Amino acid sequence: MIEHDVVVIGGGPAGLAAAVAARQAGAEDVCIIERDKRLGGILQQCIHNGFGLHIFEEELTGPEYAQRFIDMAQQWCVHSMLDTMVLDITPDRMITVVNNRDGLQAIKAGAVVLAMGCRERSRGALNIPGTRPAGIFTAGTAQRFVNMEGFMPGEQVVVLGSGDIGLIMARRLTLEGADVKMVCEIMPYSSGLKRNIVQCLDDFGIPLRMNHTVTKIHGKERVEGVTVAAVDQNRKPIAGSEEYVPCDTLLLSVGLIPENELSRSAGIQLNPITGGPVVDESMQTSIPGIFACGNVVHVNDLVDNVSTESAIAGKAAAMYASGMLDESKASIKVKAGPGVRYIVPNAINLTRVDDAVTLYFRVDNVYEGAALRVLTDKGILFNIKKKIIVPGEMQHIKLKKSFLTKQGDIRDIIVEVAGEGK
Amino acid sequence: MYDVVVIGAGVAGSCIARELSRYKLSVCLLDKEWDVASGTSKGNSAIVHAGYDAKPDTLQAYLNVKGNELMEQWCAELDVPFKRVGSLVLAFNDDDMYELHKLMEQGQANGVQGLRIIYKDELHAMEPYISDDAVAALYAPTAGIVCPYELTIAAAENAVVNGVDIELGQAVQSIMRESDGFEIVTTEHTIRARYVIDAAGVYADDVASMIGDNSFKITPRKGEYCILDKAKGYLAKHVIFQPPTAMGKGVLVTPTVDGNILVGPNAHDVNDKEDTATTAAGLQEIMDTARKSVPGVSERDVITSFAGLRAVSGSDFVIKASDVDNRFIIVGGICSPGLTSAPAITVMVVGLLYQAGLILDVKADFNPIRKGIPRFREMNEDERRQLIAMNPAFGRVICRCETVTEGEIIEAVNRPIPAVTLDAIKRRARAGMGRCQSGFCTPRVMEIISRERGIPVDGITKKGGRSLVLTGVLQKGDAYDDRT
Ligand SMILES: Cc1cc2nc3c(=O)[nH]c(=O)nc-3n(C[C@H](O)[C@H](O)[C@H](O)COP(=O)(O)OP(=O)(O)OC[C@H]3O[C@@H](n4cnc5c(N)ncnc54)[C@H](O)[C@@H]3O)c2cc1C
Ligand SMILES: Cc1cc2nc3c(=O)[nH]c(=O)nc-3n(C[C@H](O)[C@H](O)[C@H](O)COP(=O)(O)OP(=O)(O)OC[C@H]3O[C@@H](n4cnc5c(N)ncnc54)[C@H](O)[C@@H]3O)c2cc1C
Q: How high is the ipTM of this complex?
């Protein structure tokens, strides 16, 4: 049997940052297991720039950003098993992997970091009625075809959903000569970043239809068109507003779902809102010794946040593996209050916090002139006034350890939005 | 000149072709689509019915019970997943109770074994997630579930191995009667045969009318379905029906042989024989109706939806030698329970051919055994190790949702009926049938098809014909040179 101090599952930015941090924190033997043929995760197909503004203060492309971490991992002698799929993990950290070189292998880990990323919601998950022809892609699959394989997925394109990948692909396909007819968004606001709407749609004159959805797919062999309709406040199509849009391709950018098959089979508690593991300030899951970070926990829009959060997980995993992680129970619960859809982490053990803990969360609506309010079971701590808060951009609030200690014996920390949604 | 041409490679035609391959005959199996099981046989409830639904003394009643009996052997020989899980028809009130008793009597008249009515405690112990409102159920232990497309594929493969020719993508356009047989004109060929089997599903009436037989008419009746994520597989252990209605057996909730939950169908007559589109209203209807049986059925867990067309012609199957020419055997109106009945239909069709003068000499070397593609996902560790030791390609996972390996896909590509489209791979190896619905594995599967068959990646289709997945090649720049 193979043994490692820390095993990281997934070699995307989350796994890479966790592995490097684990080595820096003293773990001798750290191994990343990645099912793809190379490290870098989803970033390998994101050849546009805009990565790393916060961490490197530079605009890097996805592969460039990933390469910086791959180089660091190499400097720190992180091992990796590529083209290898993790099939199973147990609560006592036995990992079953398979590849075509060594077949099935069992690995024993001192600590495990889950960094499997996420997958895209498919047409089936939306249950869009109609026929089932060729020409329906998730935006990420189309991105892989264009950026990695060098193929065109279609010529006349309708994009459903204004998630970042969809916006970026609208631009990418336009640059490659496709006619992107429109982007439909069922909500009154976009789930993508503002800068992506401007740079990917507005600059190319691609219309963004808010409060619109695709109600039917047409075509027997290849997509021939879609029916687009306006929706009411309950997101139900408005009769009479249907419009037939001829196209040969429908791209879906309708959300990402954390990839937690392994977590589920290990019996790790999942948050029903995010679909990812419930974690504490050290990114430890409900099973001691198993940590999680990156998109497997909650879907991030900025890779910089992923790297920061993952370093915490890697460091804690190293400490756990060497028996140095404080094992007392987290005493403070972190809760999403009104207006907040979810929050990470879900609990804090102050004894394990060095200097500060950062709360990451998303709001459930567009709020203008509202405030983010942080309170405890004892009362309000503070308000942060905001011009505008949107669900598409993850919020974070940093709480100093010294500040929290001063509050005395608190049981709950709650973050909420003070103000009216749009 | 073939002895027999079978038109339609659905479950009926494919099973008939396999049965005919026992004899010293030259046989050709034809379909207009680019794979077998591309019609109704891929879009149905996948239930091996016990046989209490059909009116006594009908072909449906006889062939259902007989087919149910034969199914076990067929599936064992052909290595097709089949589970006798039993079915339950729920009753919610006194009217339903009356229906249950009627069904039970009918079933007994049809020769169905083991039927009994069970009451609340036993029922809820058997199915913990059904509605509290269900007060009793008709339990049929002989009912089961099967993989309908795998049964069709397996039968067709076994037929091919035993010498049957198969022609895909060949729509029959006209048939000429001649003294010694028939001349069949398809999209690309003219094929001659002494006997013809018309197993063309919803088109069986159109094909029959090509020789002037207008004795029956088929109305397509659409049924829509949703498939739920395997994580919800615990919701049903048996096939759970509601009391039947005038339009059919009603909406059911059932496990599939792969561990998903299948919900559906509704029943609406349509005009277009190609109309297998799902509708918003229809999907809503089946989910709402299903919740009456199993309240935990939720839109949140749907991974895909589809529809199939029942070939309805009156109230029974139409299986007969044509009055116009008794060398033309009609296998029409094969609506439900056609899948269940398929093994029994073959026996009846062979009888009709014999009566029409076909000489049936048993082949000494007929091989009834077909080995399916290994299923890595269902194996234990030892079996997995052995498989990978035999061929390392079984150690490389391609479809992560269903844990399908490269070895399985390579095998699917190289089967007796090669799978060269995404849908064909999907139905043989299950790649792309999981919760991400092929988002992840599509590029990888295309690469394997391309490599194994020497087809350019941008020439690969979803299901043959003009269903191209990609629309062209990009100008390759530096960005692509490092692909591995
Ligand atoms: C299309 C797109 C565009 C984006 N654009 C930007 C941008 O412009 N700027 C920005 O800052 N951020 C952007 N982001 C966000 C950021 O890049 C992601 O949030 C980040 O990549 C997530 O990292 P991760 O490591 O959690 O996941 P991933 O990168 O998905 O990595 C997970 C890895 O785990 C592996 N894995 C999963 N399961 C297993 C298993 N069982 N066995 C072995 N390996 C496994 C996977 O193969 C994968 O390599 C974008 C994200 C996407 C998807
Ligand atoms: C909603 C629904 C639920 C059902 N549930 C069940 C169930 O649970 N249990 C059960 O036992 N049965 C069930 N059935 C019935 C069962 O699915 C059918 O009886 C069975 O699949 C019919 O098989 P087939 O071979 O006759 O038709 P098909 O599978 O439709 O095959 C006919 C083939 O003929 C080909 N064809 C047509 N015209 C031409 C032409 N001109 N030239 C060449 N080829 C042609 C078509 O392409 C097609 O492949 C259900 C049916 C439906 C629609």
A: 0.91
